Amino acid sequence: MLKLFTPAKAPSYRQERVAEEIRFLLSQQLQRDCLPIERNDNDDLIKPQAPITITALDVSPDLRHAQIGVMPLGGIGQETVVQFMRANAWYLRKFLAKQLKTRIAPELHFYLDNHFEQAARIDALIVKSKNTIKHTAN
Hints:
Layout: H1 13-32, E1 52-59, E2 65-72, H2 78-87, H3 89-99, E3 107-112, H4 115-137
Parallel strand pairs: 2-3
Antiparallel strand pairs: 1-2
C-alpha cells in the first residue's frame, strides 16, 4: 500500500465527500459491467467470476490518489478481481475525470481487502475461547 494514506489526522470533510462520490461512480460502472479489458498481457482471461464489491476507499489529502479495497462477492477468484481492476484503472480514471467536479482525477490503486476474512477469524477465535471456558467451568 502507498504511504500517502497514513494521515496524522482524520480525513477532511472534502476528502470524505470525494471518496463517497468516487465510490458511487465506480459502483455504477461496475453494475453496468462494461469495463473494456478482460484479458491480461498473456491473453489469459481475467474476467471476474462474481460481482465486485468496493469495501474501502481512501483518498489522499491532495486528492491525487485513491486507495480502493475490492473483494469479489463470496470471495471467489480474489486475485482475478484485483488484476481485472488494475487492468481497467486507466478506463475508470478517465470515466471519473469526466464525472467528478475536481480539477484532477485521482490515480486509482486497487488492493484486495481481507477485512472480512480477519473478522471471520476473530469471530472463530471468540467462539473457540467461549467453548473452552464452558468446558473448564463444567
